[in-house]
Amino acid sequence: MTDLAEELGVSEMTIRRDLDRLESDGEIAKVHGGAVRTDPEQSARGLEPPSSTKAEREPGAKRAIAAAALSLVEDGMTLAIGAGTTTLELARLLRGRDVTVITNSVSIFHLLTDPSADEVVSSGVQLTGGQRTPSDALVGPIANAALERFRTDRAFVGTHGIDPLAGFTTPNLGEAETNRKLLGTARSCVVIADHTKYGEIGAHLYAGFGRVDHLVTDDGLSEGRRAELTRVVDLVVAEGNS
């Protein structure tokens, strides 16, 4: 702070005031001894953007991914579906299907049980309960205890980050723990996420590639990255962002 004030020829109080303004505008994040510039398209490892913000990103890709993931669903299945904007698109396609759904997402629960809509999931929907996060996930001890009592055929989860070495990660510790429990209910696990998640690494690991049977993404992923992922997971690429 002192060095910056001397370099610019202003007081430290002026520097602090300007940094406060830049932080409030979302341009920087203050850290010990100074500040770092924030990227509006990518969140820091310790931060999780709200679901309303994430819903605005890559909507066509998310719909295409959900349509491709639907091929992994058979009537009569019991599904665990994690919170997220891509999993919400999958849930839209499950209305009217003969499946049972376990979820830790309030939005997915409302979507699949809304009596004012024409179709609901015929076999029932269970909501875990728990503490709500900015990404609309219910997490924590209540959610985890509920999930320990379920057994499902297939789990679908989204992710904050995909990295061939780091695995699947999230900035939220509670969400990571609950995602592990959710995946633990299932005989088969699927991650559904758009191409922008590639190369992102959140602070908390919830699954390595050995735990995931399928990764469904969109055709915005480069050929080189597809080749890297194909070596560690069964990759399904949804062609055509609708």
From TrEMBL:
GO MF annotation list: DNA-binding transcription factor activity
Chain residue ranges for the region called Disordered: 27-60
Keyword tags: Transcription, Transcription regulation
PROSITE patterns the UniProt entry points to: HTH_DEOR_2
Record-annotated HTH deoR-type domain positions: 1-37
The organism's place on the tree of life at top rank: Bacteria
InterPro entries listed in its UniProt record: Carb_Metab_HTH_regulators, DeoR-like_C, DeoR_HTH, NagB/RpiA_transferase-like, WH-like_DNA-bd_sf, WH_DNA-bd_sf
A Pfam family the protein falls into: DeoRC
Matches recorded under PANTHER family: AGA OPERON TRANSCRIPTIONAL REPRESSOR-RELATED, HTH-TYPE TRANSCRIPTIONAL REGULATOR SRLR-RELATED
Name used for this protein in its record: Putative transcriptional regulator
Organism, scientific name: Gordonia soli NBRC 108243
